[in-house]
Design a protein that fits this description.
heterodimer, A: 184 residues, mainly alpha, B: 99 residues, 5 helices, 72% helix, 0% strand
Chain lengths: 184, 99
């Protein structure tokens, strides 16, 4: 019995950010992440008939994305040819003993825990963003994340500045209450 | 409501140092984007002295700004999303034509 339904029309608006954030923490490259997200949507479209309705749309898309990310790593690995492990230490006498210092943990490197937390924070933000009405979300993103100035946005959407502030206020209120439970 | 009236209702340039909650929230929103004037910020802080509801709103709002600006969280750019949407729409059309 299908409890969840697929509606591809809303996919891009609702999930692209979420998936993008998920991908970028794993591949660390904007362009590749973008391509993978796109491929995921296309693959999702092609295999829509295999959807059994057991999971939500988002979970289903993420599971496709996971395969895509694995495939991506397989591909770049096979490009390299055989796996090689190379260690090159300087053999000159001047730098003798330097490798010891290289092995000391870097206190400024981000640790796994904070990485995970940041990734989760990103996913939470995107989840909340996707609950906003489309127009509100668009304006809120332009203003807050892409830092367009008020005038530009007003012109683009043909609204007055006080309209804009009302929209921003509503968006901020619902974002805050959505994030409040876990993140503040 | 005419546009002019609406603007007047939201503007904070009145002479009183005491803001209404609506005005205070508006200043708070504006200051999240560094668009409020010094006088407005002073008035907001006076308001916050006696209004706990607005204190809560301000606190949440500041937190929201902070987490949104976290440099480890990535967003797609609006034009990237639009491009993606366009391509996907084409695929979708092709796909539904086939079936």
């Amino acid at each position: 019995m299908a409890e969840h339904k697929l509606d591809p029309n809303g996919w891009i608006r609702n999930y692209s950010d979420y998936l993008f954030n998920y991908t970028i923490s794993r591949v660390d490259d904007r362009e590749i992440a973008k391509d993978l997200v796109q491929e995921t949507f296309f693959a999702g479209l092609r295999s829509m008939k295999n959807f059994e309705g057991k999971a939500s749309e988002r979970t289903w898309l993420v599971s496709i994305l996971k395969r895509k990310i694995i495939d991506h790593y397989r591909k770049i690995n096979s490009n390299k040819g055989k796996a090689e492990v190379r260690m090159s230490y300087n053999s000159s006498e001047e730098s003798e003993g330097d490798w010891l210092e290289e092995r000391v943990a870097d206190p400024y490197a981000s640790n796994a825990e904070s990485d995970i937390e940041n990734n989760e924070l990103g996913l939470a933000i995107h989840k909340c963003l996707s609950t906003l009405p489309e127009k509100q979300a668009k304006i809120f993103r332009m203003k807050t994340i892409e830092n367009y100035d008020t005038e530009t946005i007003c012109k683009e959407f043909d609204i007055t500045s006080s309209n804009l502030w009302v929209i921003i206020h509503r968006a901020r209120t619902s974002m805050a209450s959505c994030m409040e439970k876990n993140w503040f | 409501m005419s546009d002019k009236k609406r603007k007047k209702g939201l503007s904070v340039s009145g002479t009183s140092v005491f803001l209404s909650c609506d005005e205070a929230n508006h200043v708070c929103d504006k200051s999240q984007y560094k668009e409020s004037t010094l006088l407005e910020k002073i008035k907001l802080n006076i308001h916050l002295l006696f209004c706990s509801a607005c204190r809560k709103y301000t606190k949440n709002n500041v937190n929201l700004t902070k987490v949104l600006q976290d440099k480890n969280v990535s967003y797609m750019k609006e034009n990237e999303v639009t491009d993606l949407e366009k391509e996907f729409k084409e695929q979708l059309k092709e796909f539904s034509d086939k079936n």
